[in-house]
Amino acid sequence: MLFDLPDPDTLYQALLARDDRFDGQAFVCVASTGIFCRLSCPARNPLRENCTFFGTVAECIAAGYRPCKRCHPLAPAAGADPAITALLAALEADPAHRWSEVDVAARGFDPSTVRRAFKRHYGMTFLEMARQRRLRDSFEVIAAGGPVIAAQHEAGFDSPSAFRAAFARLLGSAPGTFAADASLRASWIATPLGDMIAVASRSHLHLLEFMGRKALPGELRRLHQGTAGGIGLGRFAPHEQAAAELGDFFAGRSARFETPLHQPGSAFAQTVWAALCEIPAGETCSYAELAASIGRPTATRAVARANGANQIALMVPCHRVIGADGALSGYGGGLSRKQRLLEIERAYRPDPARA
Predict the structure, then answer these.
(1) C-alpha 352: how far from chain center
(2) Is the per-residue pLDDT at 16 higher than 80?
(3) Among 43, 67, 78, 209, which lies 20 to 30 A Cα-Cα from 273?
(4) Which CATH architecture has domain 8-67?
(5) Cβ atoms within 10 A of the Cβ of 304, count?
(6) Where are the domains of the chain?
(7) Contacts of 236 by beta carbon, 8 Å cutoff, 6+ apart
(8) What is the pLDDT of residue 262?
(9) Average pLDDT over all residues of the chain
């Protein structure tokens, strides 16, 4: 189910509108300059007759075009933004720092512009990301058996109530509600695209989501309330297997995931999730194509809802479903992550010449 590019006129209109929904899916080669760009490139728009559109960077390079130095089509969209690059580096250098918009402005960046850029690429603001990083450290303190007060200090919170509230907003429950002997345990898994939360029993993975997903606190709260003994903190064997397979995926070694999954849902949702797993890495399909593949061509909206209800990110690859026009439609983990996942998976696409 390789996605066919929309017609050139549609893509040219997207270029005029600087539509970033096509980032990573379509590129424009400009004959008058000899360069290729993202459709969201801020450079002056070229004439229609000078434009040729391709779906991959490789095709642009093979046609003899050079990458644009303004929109950096060889880099993920977020990485091409100097504010994002600089602030992420600063966060890594001092993760315990309590960032404010004053700090952002002091580094020469407009806080409102930074807020919009991070929200667009990651689904959260930079300040929210910095707070999440501090809470990750507190999470690890509690998971190791440390007291809540130590976790609070690790996260840099002066107020116990503010710490409990921030923890609950992120993870759905206050820190003291996570039981030590629970049948489900939550663990943090770091990836090159940001941290993920994994919830597993001794035998199956129940949830895998990027931090910052709006639905995550509610998903965790429902798991917490619907499981005898609630959720604890720590790791079981499925956590270790998931972390190893994610490491292989991001390192370019394998796109196979064999961690046993527990994903309750309606028969229809189960069918949709099974169909998602049939989309090979490196390929995409539209919601309509996915509906047709399960024999329900008129159920496009229901398919989209089931896609959005998937709680196992990456392993059940809902990111491989895109808009009918080729645009990167909504993704709970953020459009920049979706774009980067699709770029990573191009390396897993079978080589026709070798086949």
Answers:
(1) 29
(2) yes
(3) 78
(4) 3-Layer(aba) Sandwich (3.40)
(5) 19
(6) 8-67, 76-156, 178-250, 267-346
(7) 185, 200, 201, 202, 203
(8) 95
(9) 84
One CATH from 3.10.450, 3.30.160, 3.40.5, 2.40.30 for 178-250: 3.30.160
Give tens-digit pLDDT for 31-49.
Answer: 888 899 999 898 999 999 9
With 90 as the cut, is the pLDDT of residue 245 above it? yes
Its pTM stands at: 0.67
Strands annotated E in the chain: 27-30, 35-38, 51-54, 66-67, 184-189, 196-200, 205-210, 231-233, 285-286, 321-322
pLDDT tens for each residue of 123-133: 678 888 888 77
The crossing angle, in degrees rounded to 10, of helices 160-171 and 126-143 is: 100
Q: How far apart are CA 220 and CA 168, in angstroms?
A: 10
Q: Are 233 and 142 in contact (CB under 8 A)?
A: yes
Q: At what angle do helices 111-122 and 335-346 cross, to 10 degrees?
A: 50
**For residue 185, which phi and psi values (nearest 5 degrees)?**
-130, 145
Q: Which residues contact 28 (CB under 8 A, 6 or more apart)?
A: 11, 12, 15, 36, 37, 38, 39, 41, 46, 51, 52, 53
Q: Yes or no: say if 221 and 168 are a contact pair by the CB < 8 Å rule.
A: no
* Rounded distance between C-alpha atoms, residue 26 and residue 338, angstroms: 14
Higher pLDDT, 215 or 62: 215
Q: Show which residues are catalytic.
A: 37, 318
Which of 183, 175, 229 shows the shortest CA–CA distance to 203? 183
Q: According to CATH, what is the number of the domain 267-346? A: 1.10.10.10
